[in-house]
Amino acid sequence: MQTKFYVVGIGPGAPELMTPQAHAALQEAEVIAGYGTYLKLIKPLFPDKEYLQTGMTGEVKRCQLALEQAQAGKIVAMVSSGDAGIYGMAGLVLQLAEGLPVEVVPVPGITAASSGAALLGAPLMHDFAVISLSDRLTPWDKIEKRLLAAAEADFCVVLYNPRSHGRPDLLNRACQLLGRHKGPETPVGIVKNIGREGEQAIVTTLAELDENLVDMFSTVFIGNSQTYIQQTVAGLKIVTPRGYLEEAAQ
Amino acid sequence: MQTKFYVVGIGPGAPELMTPQAHAALQEAEVIAGYGTYLKLIKPLFPDKEYLQTGMTGEVKRCQLALEQAQAGKIVAMVSSGDAGIYGMAGLVLQLAEGLPVEVVPVPGITAASSGAALLGAPLMHDFAVISLSDRLTPWDKIEKRLLAAAEADFCVVLYNPRSHGRPDLLNRACQLLGRHKGPETPVGIVKNIGREGEQAIVTTLAELDENLVDMFSTVFIGNSQTYIQQTVAGLKIVTPRGYLEEAAQ
């Protein structure tokens, strides 16, 4: 017998940013698995489910336990914040499900690049690179190479996991690398706790960026050479133009 | 008086991939503006709105007309497919609203990188670059530079606008550039008509990619050096591992 295993991106946390498809998958599931912080956001919406709660690390064990439930015939949903397919659990579940009679169904969610950009204005209107600064699973020299390549080719850059307990200096090092090809006045946006209590959006520049403003729940946006900061009735916003006005003026 | 102007990402088109926040913004709006194809998806859900329909190009004019409605005191929502902040209208609306008593409120949506990745499996579990192949607003040499940089730094790559009427050869040229640093066996995924009639996901490789499979409604995913194709109970899927299994094996 073949059972479904949903890997569900719940978005940044607020129910109004979770898609109806994600809601339906959680509704259909008998067991909901995931990291405690995310389950806390889900439980009030689905109080009658069986929950499989685990710590932040130990991802392999967590997925294996959840897959055992699926093999026992239960419909499982594993939740990731943001999009389960972007630094989430979709890949690991697929890998571990190889050869098992389990259908892995990824359900997309709003990732921090999208939800954070909306709070900041429109920083990602042009080509962009998404880079995680976590060196737990990726050698730092690979991260470094990607930062330099993205900066040199004038990508907008979105940094996930910009700060960790053990390595508080990662963001400063990343900004130094980006600064080799991006000017000090390049707009930088920091968003924290998107769609949750304590939501905050900060607009600054590469030169002025204070890494103490950035925590583990932050996402950092760095503009390209065209990006600018615009005063609006709702405060400072970051805009990366895409060339429509230049085209219209021709 | 200050009025709200929502720039709403409606996701790929299926109502189950539109967030409740996007739904609420459209509900609140008095005027809904956008390209005809997208409005057709929205009208059945909100039959009693005033609609401001325009062609595919002429974006500046379209935004100006919609901003005039906002200045006349009406709550306006302009829709983009996917995420309004990723190759959508959020930036242009902000630019054109400069100095006006209009509060521009971007509402994030599920972009094709997320929705397409979910259909393909988990191709974007590691750092990735999003690049539009449209050279209407961007010089081709800039696009070329970004393709090469992304390939050299071993990013996964997502290509938006991989085909246009006037330039059918863009995708082949892009793949040749990517192929300077990515092997011929690199997995490639093509998704079409996500969440709509005719939805299709194709798994192939850089060497085997047939650009005739790609149309204007497609998004193309190219793996990094670790990406592989996995046989599953639901067919071939693309997986980019993130290193959890290697870490656990240590």
Please report the two chains with the greatest interface, counting residues with C-beta closer than 8 angstroms to the partner's C-beta.
Answer: A-B, 87 and 86 residues
Structure annotation, total helices of chain A: 8
The SSE order of chain A reads: EHEHEHEHEHEEHEHEEEEEH
State which percent range the strand residues of chain A make up: 25-35%
The biggest sheet of chain A, with number of strands, parallel, antiparallel or mixed sense and barrel status, is: 5 strands, parallel
- Overall geometric form of chain A: elongated
Helix content of chain A: 25-40%
Average pLDDT, all residues of chain A: 94
What does this structure look like?
2 copies of one chain form a homodimer. Chain A has helices at 20-28, 36-42, 59-71, 90-96, 112-120, 140-152, 170-178, 244-249, and strands spanning 3-9, 31-35, 50-54, 76-80, 102-107, 121-122, 128-132, 156-160, 187-192, 200-205, 218-222, 228-232, 235-239. With 250 residues, chain A is α/β, with parallel strands linked by helices. Chain A has a 5-stranded parallel sheet with strand order 3-2-4-1-5, with helices on both faces. The N and C termini of chain A lie far apart (63 Å). The mean pLDDT of chain A is 94. Chains A and B meet through helix 1, helix 3, helix 4, strand 5 and helix 5 of A and helix 1, helix 3, helix 4, strand 5 and helix 5 of B.
